[in-house]
Model the fold of this input.
Amino acid sequence: MTDDATDIAVALGERSYAIHIEDGSLDRAGALLKPFARRNRFIVVTDAHVAATQSGRLGTALDAAGIASTIEILPAGEATKSWANLERVTDFLLDQGVERNDTVIALGGGVIGDLVGFAASMLKRGCNFVQIPTTLLSQVDSSVGGKTAINSRAGKNLIGAFYQPVHVLIDPTTLDTLSPREVRAGYAEVVKYGLIDDPDFFDWCEANGPALLEGDSSARRFAIARSVAAKARIVAEDERETTGRRALLNLGHTFGHALEAETGFSDRLLHGEAVATGMALAFRFSAAAGLCDAAVAARVTAHLEAAGLPATLAAAHVDASGAALVAHMLHDKKMEGGRLPFLLARGIGQTFLEKQVDLTTVERFLDQERG
Ligand code: GLY
Done:
């Protein structure tokens, strides 16, 4: 372990686990993950992009520690989170003779983490899995907290389970092979933690976001560790999103979901870009409702734009009416008894859950935003 390594605990009783964050840790994964290698082997699932850039590093590290491994490589992209690929992964794992005590490694971004985590949750009624997230978005959000899922005809992430990994290994150097656009999209989820309940971190983002986006390793490590610590704290308080605490992590996601649905959940608007626009909309909606100062909403918008993220409908290339966007929201899995909870804000770091939002007001607001 180097001086720059950080370990963060997710405190969930007997399902507690650690998140290890360290530059270059993927190259030491054999030594770091050996305690989880039952029968001295791992079964790795990844996607074609990550296989080209990172899986060699993992394979070499496991070899060096004398750990055998086999790997399944799936197509890259959101379409991989399907029933067909869930079957492919579970069949592969069964063909490998996986036992409940064996550990499966999900090496990749959110798609691989969600799919492999879900496969692990059902295989032999639950086998161990380790997350090695390789995108900024998965490092600061989806690899932590045990949400696993696939998509279905009816929508995204509608079929899944809460199933915690036994360990998360984060090597920020994996971000070096991502496109700047993908790093920016992940950065939206970093900013989210400042906006939820950590105004000092939002200040930090304003000062250091540009360095992080340019690949500054210490800014990157700091932001990942601060984000993961925030997520670990929230997950420990409300693992299954029952008290409203974990729902705060959905800031920007209700508006963002509508934008993603409008753009066909495609590369036209990445999830993090939709979340960035959604967070800016949530703050401007809060300002329009008199909940927070317009200057606060303008500050949030300005930071997201300075980071190269879309913060308006126009910048997200969405020209749908308020009614059309609200119609998408009605398919959101967060609907509760016919009402849709919204995350609104009284200020930076003062996000709260509001269950009584009138959707006609949202529709009018979006029409004004459309201009
Ligand atoms: N990505 C939101 C959550 O994990 O709850």
The pocket of glycine is lined by residues 141-142, 145, 147, 246, 249 (CB under 6 Å). The chain has a mean pLDDT of 96. The radius of gyration is 20 Å.
